[in-house]
Amino acid sequence: MSKFQLYPAIDLRGGKCVRLFQGDYAQETVYGDSPVDMAKKFVEAGAEWIHMVDLDGAKDGVRINDKVVIEAARLPVNVQVGGGIRTREDVEHYLSNGVSRVIIGSLAIRNPELVVSFIEEFGADRIVIGIDAKDGMAATEGWIETSGQSAQDVARFFAEKGAELFIYTDIATDGTLAGPNIDANKALVGSGEAGVIVSGGIGSLEDIKNVKQAAADSSIAGVIIGKALYENRFTLEEALSC
């Protein structure tokens, strides 16, 4: 598994940089009119990766903020993106325009065999399976609906099909700054070859240190940091030097 990685997050809605509270579109805070300028700040701070989510796309099921994502991907940084990716053409659109990895969420629940074909065609290093969970059950459509499958069952299926990387978001902690659900992340794929990126709840440098410590003897491969950066709980430079 590659080295532990930090992913500063940029969530896109209406072309702006926003954050939601527990995935609730009615509880939105706008943090900037230019997501690309935000990406530049992250690059200047030393980011190797940026995590971007098209919230409009996740909700409506089509690419909406893709031009902004592709513009950010032209910076000297790796970009992974999720939200509104529903077809092979969506995947190819991003990967052929400089995006390093695409994150497949709702589609992985609704049409898993299609997503397996993406892994086979584009490579497991470029397809990330995003699993968002409410009470351990996988949620879809921008967290609006809950599926009847457990997060662990979804992860186990894709790991057996060759998936190498997962993003696990505990919706209950997302945007709360109350600390991540480390145990759920460690349990997602067990001790297999796949890695898990922790998403949701990071509120302090101590939280990051705890995730890194857990990564030493588990499948945890990285952590996504969002609201804490925008609320100035700490700087990205500080997070990277943890």
Account of the 3D structure:
The protein is built from 11 helices and 12 strands. By secondary structure, the chain is α/β, with parallel strands linked by helices. Strands 1-4-5-6-7-10-11-12 form an 8-stranded parallel β-barrel, surrounded by 7 helices. Helix 1 (35-44) runs parallel beside helix 3.
Provide a concise account of the structure shown.
This protein is of the alpha/beta class.
Which helices and strands, and how do they pair?
Blueprint: E1 5-13, E2 16-21, E3 24-32, H1 35-44, E4 49-54, H2 55-60, H3 66-73, E5 78-82, H4 88-95, E6 101-104, H5 106-110, H6 112-122, E7 127-134, E8 137-140, E9 145-150, H7 151-160, E10 165-170, H8 182-188, E11 195-199, H9 205-215, E12 220-225, H10 227-230, H11 236-240
Parallel strand pairs: 1-4, 1-12, 4-5, 5-6, 6-7, 7-10, 10-11, 11-12
Antiparallel strand pairs: 1-2, 2-3, 7-8, 8-9
Main features:
single chain, 11 helices, 35% helix, 31% strand
- N-to-C series of helices and strands: EEEHEHHEHEHHEEEHEHEHEHH
- How much helical structure, as a percent, in the residues? 25-40%
Structural class: alpha/beta
Number-wise, the strands total 12
